[in-house]
Design brief:
Elements (H helix, E strand, L loop, with lengths): L4 H4 L4 H16 L9 H8 L3 H13 L3 E4 L3 E4 L3 E5 L7 E12 L2 H7 L6 E11 L2 E11 L12 H13 L5 E10 L2 H7 L6 E11 L2 E11 L3 E6 L2 E7 L1
Antiparallel strand pairs: 1-2, 3-11, 4-5, 5-6, 6-9, 7-8, 8-9, 10-11
Helix pairs in contact: 2-4, 3-4
């Protein structure tokens, strides 16, 4: 049997080193401890410093390491669980903006709307232990929620939409999860550089006659991971 191109491709040196570093970190270091400097690490593992930096960059991207200017590279804190939908008491939601706009194509499709249909939207940032761990945009068709007062201030209108959303006759919901990258605006809200990996959760809330709302949530993949259990989907975020 022939060998595929994927099977024949050698493993990059930095990726092999990343695997070795993960094992070393688990066996020799604890949370908050400082890694040796790059020169010492490169000498220990017999690699070029450029290869070492690639491996360290990857581990930082995965949330295993934290770099602090003037201090060095630290072992990141372990991750802890928080529910996706319900606040745990240790986290808060901060409203960014709200309004009425044409539904994006993907949202219109999920809601079964025609292109250009108007929806209420509320965008929020989820904070935990003082850091932004995720964002959420809730989309509700205007025809589903026609009685939101237009004279309210933006923050009050957002709260009114969220309150009315809680009262919608939801009969069920569906969720999907995919890996993506943060665009410039998402990255700004998450206080991270553009292009970081993110977990995108799309939830459709269903009534007897069809979809009632869609919520698109974006979580930092360097601090969050998903677990599935009896209580539903949870996000585990670094403290």
């Amino acid at each position: 049997m022939g060998t595929t191109a994927t099977e024949a491709a050698p493993e990059p040196k930095y990726w092999h080193l990343r695997t070795v570093l993960v094992r070393t970190i688990d066996e020799e270091f604890r949370t908050g401890e400082l890694l040796p400097n790059e020169r010492d690490l490169a000498a220990r593992f017999g690699v070029a410093r450029a290869t070492l930096r690639q491996a360290l960059d990857q581990l930082e991207l995965e949330g295993r390491l934290v770099r602090r200017r003037g201090i060095g590279t630290l072992i990141a804190a372990p991750r802890m669980g928080i529910p996706v939908v319900e606040a745990s008491g240790r986290d808060t939601w901060r409203i960014v903006d709200c309004g009425v706009a044409s539904a994006p194509a993907s949202v219109a499709d999920a809601l079964g709307l025609e292109a250009g249909a108007e929806v209420h939207s509320v965008r929020r940032v989820r904070m935990m232990a003082g850091q932004a761990v995720g964002t959420e945009t809730l989309f509700v068709p205007v025809e589903v929620m026609p009685h939101v007062p237009g004279f309210l201030a933006e923050s009050s209108r957002a709260r009114a939409i969220l309150k009315q959303f809680q009262l919608l006759p939801v009969e069920g919901e569906s969720r999907s999860v995919e890996l993506g990258v943060a665009e410039e605006e998402q990255a700004r809200l998450l206080e991270r550089p553009p292009g970081i990996p993110v977990l995108v959760l799309t939830a459709r809330y269903l009534g007897e006659e069809g979809p009632l709302a869609v919520a698109v949530s974006t979580y930092r993949a360097d601090t969050c991971k998903l677990t599935f259990g009896e209580s539903g989907v949870e996000v585990r975020a670094a403290s």
